[in-house]
Specification:
Elements: E1 3-7, H1 8-11, H2 14-24, H3 38-41, H4 47-63, H5 72-80, E2 84-89, H6 96-105, E3 112-115, E4 128-131, H7 134-137, E5 145-149, E6 162-163
Parallel strand pairs: 1-2, 1-4, 2-3, 4-5, 5-6
């Protein structure tokens, strides 16, 4: 059976959530919201301020975030009928409850959620890997087909296979 791995931030509309936070706090909203550089995007000058903010808000940011696509649940559940679908997450222990809450409210009928270090992904471990993660997109796989799920912060990375919705996967 074919195994499809999808990284968690393909599913989350974190850019939209961060935009909401910036607008509520009346801070300028950058054209590109890089979710891998939130300290700078949110305008925190010190690590301490950023860590305090994230500690107080990680559930609302990562758990109560909307899905990245309107029909995402239908698309993934349809894929899961004929394929083993695995969600991959690098979220640390403190973010895992928020991630699990996000997935539970999404009603996804998936086989597995794996909390892993993306650097540990082995070539051939999955038939298909769908990611928006800039670090993963720069890796080369010979046995795994990789698709870039395009987001504003990864448009500059050439991956060969690019999609803008999961419904493009057959």
């Amino acid at each position: 059976m074919r195994k499809i791995a999808i990284t968690i931030n393909v599913l989350r509309n974190l850019e939209g959530k961060i935009k909401e936070i910036l607008e509520k706090s009346e801070k300028p909203v950058p054209e590109i919201i890089n979710i891998y550089d939130l300290q700078n995007v949110l305008g925190f000058e010190t690590d301490e301020e950023f860590i305090e903010f994230m500690t107080e808000n990680f559930l609302s940011i990562y758990g109560f975030v909307r899905l990245s696509e309107q029909n995402l649940t239908i698309t993934i559940n349809s894929l899961a009928e004929t394929t083993k679908v695995i969600i991959l997450s690098e979220d640390g222990k403190k973010l895992r409850p928020a991630t699990l809450y996000f997935l539970s409210k999404s009603a996804l009928e998936i086989d597995s959620v794996q909390f892993i270090d993306y650097n540990g992904i082995n070539d051939g471990e999955y038939s298909l890997l769908i990611t928006e993660d800039p670090n993963l997109l720069t890796r080369e796989f010979k046995l795994t087909t990789m698709y870039k799920y395009e987001k504003s912060y990864n448009k500059h990375i050439d991956c060969g296979n690019t999609i803008t919705t999961l419904s493009e996967i057959k």
